[in-house]
Amino acid sequence: MRHRRPKLQRQVGWLGWRLLSRTVLGLAFLLVLGPFVPVAISAFDSGLPGEQGFQGFTIDWFSIALTRPDFQSGLIVSVKVAGGAAAVALLIGVASAFAMTRGPRWARGATFAGFVMSPVVIPQFLISLAMLQLLSVMGVRLGIAGLIAVHGAFISPFVVRAISASLADQGGVYEWAAMSLGADRLKVLRTVTLPLIRPALGAAVIIAFTLSFVNVPLSLFLAPSGARTLPIIMFQELEFSLSPVLAALAVLLAIPITGAVLFIERIFKVRVLT
Amino acid sequence: MGSSWATTVPILATLIVIVLVPVGMIFRQSLAPNPFASDAASVSIQNYRTLFSISVYREAMWRTIWISVLVAALAVALGFVTTLALTAFRSNARSRDSTPVTLLLAPVFAGSIVLVLGWLGLLAKGGVAYSMVNAIRALLGQPEGRVIQTNIAIILGLLQFVVPFVVLIFYPLLNRLPVELYEAGLVLGDTPSKVIRRVILPLAAPGILSAGIVALSVSVAAYVTPQVLGGDRNLVLTTLITQLLASLSPTTAAAGAVVLGAVGLVTVAVYSLLVGRVQDRGLPANAP
Q: Residues 10..69 of B with a Cβ closer than 8 Å to A: which?
């Protein structure tokens, strides 16, 4: 069979499409990552907001951000809430992922999957407000525990994504093998399934912790006034200009988050995105 | 099947307690005749009448709808082509590295506060985005002016926040395509538009549906971005609701919250119907 040379017109067509997609890719990177640049710059800029151009290098904003008592207490609250929310999300998410991959037929269908993933599309702002109104009518005051529960529920779909992909990859053959060799369900879970999905579990914990840590809309109405989370404190301090103290704080927070997220795939050798 | 209950009850119970009960409650509250009669059996649509009779409120609802639809459309298009460039149209056929995709997810993990901080810097007078927007304005013959506290600022901020969600949905779908796709298409004599129509779009179809739904609901419910970048002059539903709460009209705010939920549901439903119709018409004929 003779190898046919592609027509020039077709070659140009493909080249055009790849160029176009490459251009759009560049635009997307500009749009998505561009806004991080001024935050990083103004954290080190000695000029005050409103002054144009770089006024001089300083690390004073960092020492202010690190020593402010409200930031410190906010950080403690946020770590508690995010830690608890990650645990709750893991509990709900792992259970749902099991149901979706190994459960009864109805739980493996699209309806249950849609239900499990629904928190992604339910407006968090609306739920936060509705919970606030409900609790005030009931006369109940929601402590940190309630905030943790709500955070956990809304972050659980991201855990489901990571875990169910991992469970689907394994396809259940190892479990069947273990069961046919006489292991009971609990033993299979403990010695086969959990070790197999451990990398995905690690990745899910990092994702869940981060998503809860940065959340504003759920904490907006539900965070107790004595225990505001760090993003809420930052939000209440936001004016209509780039505050250098907030920028320094954002840079400080970005370092561990970026490290954790960028290296999830390296450390845990797991596909989080697929 | 004891284990089927153990695995499905947590999510079912949580969603009922956290979603259905409070939303039912806020719906009931929106029908109260006044803020102090929440226990009375009387039902009134006064709150909705207030919401629709004041022009600033109507404007806020309309702004929520058109900005969300515009942002969702731009985000789906941008996210689709971007993901395509990172999967099927990738330059190095051997690289299966997902680091660029992870970078694109940065806004999701950074959180909305950091994002609006960045936009405040970019959009302030002398900022890069400020100059770009005003250059476009000059081309259109419009006068130079501030960008923060305009609709453009809200749209840019939301777009940055929504595109990562779209990429997150398209990536697993399009990553199944072989990287040699364009070479195969080239050698076998297919034009790119034919490959896109016959191979890529059918694979991406479920993604177009769910990406649009997520983009719409995230934009409709966004609060921090319109609050900081739009300000009080460019109210959307969420920022209007917080203003109503601050002005001590919780029942009107409740009605606003119900409208917020309804706007989200209706835009998503209309979108799903449109996509479903296009797919019904388009797919069988093009299916391989």
A: 10-12, 14-15, 18-19, 21-23, 25-26, 29, 38
The neighbouring-strand residues paired with A57 are A45
Query: Is the pLDDT higher at A20 or at A241?
Result: A20
Q: Which domains does chain A have, with CATH numbers?
A: 70-268 (1.10.3720.10)
Task: Determine whether the interchain pair B11/A156 forms a contact, defined as Cβ–Cβ distance below 8 Å.
Answer: yes
User: What domains can you pick out in chain B, each with its CATH number?
Assistant: 27-286 (1.10.3720.10)
Three-state SS across A29-67? HHHHHCCHHHHHHHHCECCCCCCCCCCCECCHHHHHHHH
**What whole-number distance in Å separates Cα of residue B3 and Cα of residue A226?**
41
CA angle A99, A101, A102 (to 5 degrees): 70
pTM of the model as a whole: 0.87
Q: Which residues in chain B have Cβ-Cβ distances shorter than 8 Å to A47?
A: none
B257 interface with A at CB cutoff 8 Å: yes
Point out the residue among A25, A92, A241 whose CB comes nearest to the CB of B86. Answer: A25
Residue range A30-67, pLDDT digits in tens:
999 999 998 998 889 887 766 667 778 888 889 988 99
3-state helix, strand, coil in chain A (%, to 5): 75, 0, 25
Look up tokens 């300000």; give the residue. B231
| Partner-chain contact B187 A4, CB within 8 Å | yes
